[in-house]
Each structure stands twice: as structure tokens, then as C-alpha cells.
Write a structure and sequence with these properties.
- This protein is an alpha/beta fold.
- It has two domains: 2-109 and 165-197, 3-Layer(aba) Sandwich (Rossmann fold), CATH 3.40.50; 219-369, Glycogen Phosphorylase B (Rossmann fold).
- Helix content is 39%, strand content 18%.
- The chain contains 15 helices and 16 strands.
- The protein has a six-stranded parallel sheet, with helices on both faces. A six-stranded parallel sheet has the order 11-10-9-12-13-16, sandwiched between helices.
- Helix 9 (179-187) links the parallel strand 7 (173-176) and strand 8 (195-197).
- 43% of the residues are buried.
Length: 377
């Protein structure tokens, strides 16, 4: 089969890019002929023109349509597989595929089809207003992106896609990552018969033989972007309350931000695959304190592949992903409740037996459900 994979890369390499790259590799390994249509958002927010270009392209990308026409004419795919279209490809390419008689499938990595920001988050709290209202006005009203230009651009591009039925009429099949995500699409009016669930997977990575600086084994670990929606500040508050416990953070800070100086907290920065595997292997357990629902947090699988349990919020897809035969494979806390987060972190820290039991359960869940190869179309 000839498959065209379409993706607008983000400003920094992310878990979504890793999933796209893995899919391309596995499709080729399975004998499919794969070509790509990729653009990058790197540096696009660094200038006024970059922001204006992204604003306009998200509504209707002329260059994206030109590139798609060329791919349809020269590569002649049997299937177009969409990941992210914003901002420089845009949903304007989808009718071209339909008119060419090419089947279109889409992997839904987040909630952007029904929430302009893709996060279901406002003022650092879960928000489903755009889903309930059936429009995007609240994204502008509440300035969800903390930038009127971006909030307006995000709302308008979603409105354009909704009113032109760009996704509804031109995408033949949606590949959601979780049942939770599938339910939200159905609530928004998408046809449930056209939506399947295909979870992410990760490979086990052998830990580096070199120990990480300032990371003696036996700490509470955090892996991910250090930004407000990830809730890392909630875990920092737990660290502040418990100087007897060690906390290590693997990830990068947004420009202009700084970690508070606490004697029991170390920032390890963004780690490579083998270093990150060492980080997981040396942690007692991992905390995922996200304020947002998340799409499919890869950290859960990565931790589980090393036999480590997670403490995570009881919203979004977390309960679904941390469940095996009716038993929770880690600990769930009330979302945004730092006191309940503290209670769960302390309880797990004080019980090596529970850590080991839940870690083994998490690894069993990973081995059973999340280690399969990519399922080709």
C-alpha cells in the first residue's frame, strides 16, 4: 500500500513526533511504501510575521494545498494518514484528498478537533465549554492562550473547520488513543462508527550504565515539560512540605521561568533515551500531576516498562490507562488537589512493598496492552 503521512511538527520535538516517526518506520518495515508531507512550527512564534503567517495558514493554507496537490499527483497514495495539520498545512488539504478519491485516516493525538487549544483547559483548570456550547467563542472570551492573537487564531481556525465540515465530510476514519477521547468526539457529534481506539506503545529502553549527576537512586520522579498545564508546581509544593523526601525533575523549563531553590529538588534537564531510562530505573515511582486531561501520556508506559508505578490525577484517560483487570496499577489523586496528591505521594514513599506490587502490576499492564507493533491500515 502507498501511504502518505501528513504532520505539522511542533516547535520542539515531542511525544507526538516520536509516535509519527515510529509509525513511519513500522509501516515501512511492514512492506508499505511511505512518503511524507511535513512542515515545522519551529521558530514560527519568534517574529511578528511568523505569528501572522501561522494565524492565516491555520485558517486556509495555500502552500499546504499546493504541496498536497503535488503529493497526490506524483506519489499517488492509496491512503493519506493525518496527524497534525496546524498551522502550516491546515484542514484545507482534506477536500483535495476526497476529490482525488483517496481514503483519509487521522490519528487524534489531543482534543483539538473540539477544543481550540487542544487541552480542554482554561485558567489551569479542566474546561469543556467549547464542547458543550458547540462553538469556539469562549476561547476568545476567556483568552485561553493568554494571547489575544493566538486565542483568536485558534478559535477562528476551529470555527472554519467546523463550519466547512472539513473533518466530518473528508476524514473516513479516526484513530483515537483512548476510549475517553473517543467518547468526547462522539459527544461533539462525530460518527462513532468511524472512530476506533489504537493506544500508543513504547519500547523498553535499556538504562544507561552511567549514573545521572545528583541523582542517587530512590527519589520521586517527574518526567515532562515543566509548564503549568502539567501541574509540576503541585509536586513542587509537596516537595516543599517534605524536605525528608528527594524529588528529581526530568524536562525543560519554558524560557524565562526558573525552578524554586529547594534542597531536596534537582532539575536534571531534558534527557536522552538511555539517560531517561536510567532516570526511570532509579526512581521509586513517578508522579504525573497534570492539570489537563492529557491525550495519551507516554510517561505512564515508559515508567511501567521499567516496573515503576505512577501517581496521577483521576480525570481524563488516566483511570483507563492505569487499570488492569479492575485493579489500579498506581495511585490516583483528586485533580488539582495538592493535599490529596501529598497524601498519595507520601503513602507510596513510605511503602516499598506497595511500590513493588504496583510497579509489577503496571509492567504487566504494559506487557499485555502497550507493547504491540503498530497496527497497519
Amino acid at each position: 500500500m502507498r501511504i502518505l503521512v501528513v504532520h505539522n511538527d511542533y516547535g520542539r520535538y515531542s511525544g507526538e513526533e516520536a509516535v509519527v516517526d515510529r509509525m513511519i518506520g513500522e509501516l515501512r518495515q511492514a512492506g508499505h511504501t511511505v512518503d511524507t508531507l511535513r512542515r515545522s512550527s519551529e521558530g514560527s512564534r519568534d517574529s511578528l510575521w511568523g505569528n501572522i503567517h501561522g494565524f492565516l495558514a491555520g485558517l486556509w493554507s495555500i502552500s499546504g494545498r499546493r504541496q498536497m496537490r503535488r503529493k497526490l499527483r506524483t506519489f499517488r497514495p492509496d491512503l493519506v494518514h493525518i496527524h497534525n495539520l496546524y498551522p502550516f498545512i491546515s484542514p484545507a488539504v482534506l477536500p483535495l484528498c476526497r476529490r482525488a478519491g483517496v481514503r483519509v485516516e487521522m490519528t487524534v493525538h489531543n482534543y483539538r478537533l473540539i477544543c481550540p487549544t487542544g487541552l480542554f483547559l482554561r485558567d489551569n483548570r479542566p474546561c469543556e465549554n467549547c464542547l458543550r456550547n458547540g462553538n469556539e467563542r469562549d476561547c476568545i472570551r476567556y483568552n485561553c492562550e493568554q494571547s489575544l492573537l493566538r486565542s483568536l487564531g485558534y478559535a477562528l481556525r476551529n470555527m472554519m473547520a467546523r463550519r466547512t465540515r472539513a473533518y466530518i465530510d473528508n476524514v473516513d476514519y479516526y484513530r483515537c488513543l483512548t476510549q475517553f477521547q473517543r467518547r468526547k468526539l462522539i459527544e461533539a457529534g462525530f460518527d462513532g462508527e468511524k472512530i476506533g481506539v489504537f493506544p500508543n506503545r513504547v519500547d523498553y529502553v535499556e538504562p544507561s550504565a552511567e549514573p545521572l549527576p545528583h541523582c542517587e537512586p530512590g527519589y520521586v520522579g517527574y518526567v515532562g515539560r515543566l509548564s503549568p498545564e502539567k501541574g509540576y508546581d503541585l509536586l513542587l509544593e509537596v516537595a516543599r512540605r517534605h524536605p525528608e523526601m528527594e524529588f528529581r525533575f526530568a524536562g525543560f523549563l519554558r524560557e524565562g521561568e526558573a525552578m524554586p531553590q529547594l534542597p531536596n529538588v534537582r532539575l536534571c534537564g531534558q534527557l536522552g533515551p538511555w539517560q531517561l531510562a536510567r532516570f526511570y530505573a532509579d526512581a521509586r515511582f513517578i508522579v504525573v500531576p497534570s492539570r489537563c486531561y492529557e491525550g495519551f501520556p507516554m510517561v505512564l508506559l515508559e515508567a511501567a516498562s521499567h516496573g515503576k508505578p505512577c501517581v496521577a490525577p483521576s480525570h481524563g484517560a488516566f483511570p483507563e490507562l492505569m487499570s488492569l483487570d479492575g485493579e489500579v496499577t498506581g495511585r490516583l489523586f483528586r485533580p488539582l488537589d495538592v493535599d490529596d496528591l501529598e497524601r498519595n505521594v507520601v503513602a507510596l514513599w513510605q511503602s516499598a512493598e506497595e511500590c513493588e506490587r504496583l510497579g509489577a502490576l503496571a509492567n504487566k499492564n504494559y506487557q499485555r496492552l502497550y507493547k504491540q507493533p503498530f497496527i497497519a491500515p
